[in-house]
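Entry type: protein chain
Record version: 2
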Amino acid sequence: MRKIISFMHISLDGFVAGPRGEMDWIKVNEEIFDHVGKRISQGDTALYGRVTYEMMESYWPTAADQPTATKHDIEHSKWYKNVRKVILSKTRKEEGLTNTKIINDNLADKINEIKQESGSDILLFGSPTATHSLIQQNLIDGYWLFVNPIILGQGIPLFVDIKERIKLNLLTTRQFDCGVTELNYIVGRQ
């Protein structure tokens, strides 16, 4: 069965964005881009909430065509164009979308159907609202967290309204030159 892995940058105090959705505190560099690029190139499905999808869709399809495109821009743009996308949205419609599925109801049933299909891990990018919904229904199988060396004090938390403990097993860690630490967990089912 395929797993849903949540890929998220977080602050040391557990926020994924500032109070107004700011992400200007996130540190990235070529070392992180290369590391993440190797991992996501193995993925064939990207899962987004509507807001994150619209942000990605406004940039990645043409990022490689820009005169200032970096190696990361070119590689990720190619991957983004080819990957199957699943969007969680109550308002977005599927019309005109290629290789894209919209889930707007029966979240657990539809996600579990996708998890039963053949393929590799499903990568959930950012999307705090979608992540909260998936956590509430016990649908996330792993957390690939990039802890940034900052304390925000307030903002959008990664974990909200957790009803019961979620046991995690640490798979790997990695320290990057820019001070970001990767923590790769799998959810321990009991």
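Comment: Residues 4-187 form a domain with the Dihydrofolate Reductase, subunit A fold (CATH 3.40.430.10).
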